[in-house]
Amino acid sequence: MGVFAAIGIDLATFKRRERELSMRAAARRTAVWILVSLAFNLLVWRTKGPDDGLDFLTAYLIEYSLSADNIFVFVLIFSYFQVPRAAQHRALVWGVIGALMMRGTMILGGIALVRQFHFIIYVFGLLLILNAIRMLFGKSTPPDFGQTWLIRAPMRLFRITPDLHGEHFKARVDGRWMLTRLAFAMLVIEITDLLFAIDSIPAVFAITQDPFIAYTSNICAILGLRSLYFLLANLMDRFVYLRTGLGFILGFIGLKMILSDLRPVPTTLSLGIIVVILAITIGLSIVVTRRAEPK
Description:
The protein is mainly α. It has helices spanning 2-15, 23-48, 50-81, 85-116, 120-137, 149-157, 181-205, 211-223, 225-232, 242-258, 267-292, and strands at residues 170-173, 176-179. It has one domain. A hairpin with a 2-residue loop joins strand 1 and strand 2 (176-179).
């Protein structure tokens, strides 16, 4: 209930605004969500013990970092559909709600699989390593976003109007109800988040297989995603090495899962490695892009 109350409050404050969210306001909201997540982490630490508290913090950091990479794809989707900034928040709200339900199901199902068939942990580890290789050596965006199956498949399944129709998800056109361009963008974002979850959820399993810790760390990361989007949407070109850093993180976590029975890696060491990788890649990105700015 607390989760949906937080979403409701956040949505209500958005609806009262008559203009798009500024960078400063987005930064404040992002800071609030981070503080709320850390406060919940402290509650977990005190009620369930330091081991679970550390697991939560590590899993949250992984999910939040991967969310930043997701945001860059969301920017491309909204840009492709030419959705105005002021209308993007509604699609993101329903995208967050859908992600909360979808990831809860995937987490419970994944944990049940790992507990029933231990070898699945090695499959997840191999999957993360393959995705790490794709991140490190593959193309960051498709050459023609409009020709990907993410766009073509929904167009074959639904009647979609090319018009925006404000912030509405459906509109009556020529006597027929059709999805609007905004609804189409939200649908593509939901499918994209499902694909991203294939990376992020197995990564959490490398840290913890406690359903409560796994799901609440996902919730805290996802709840701050919308404000983080409006903060980072104009800074895409700043984080040039973030994708590389995330690739190294996924590769490390994949190896951790595969070697978990032979040489388990302590959570404290995992957290330290993840923080160092993120600090280096973000720091390098800031330095390089600042030097490239015209003087």
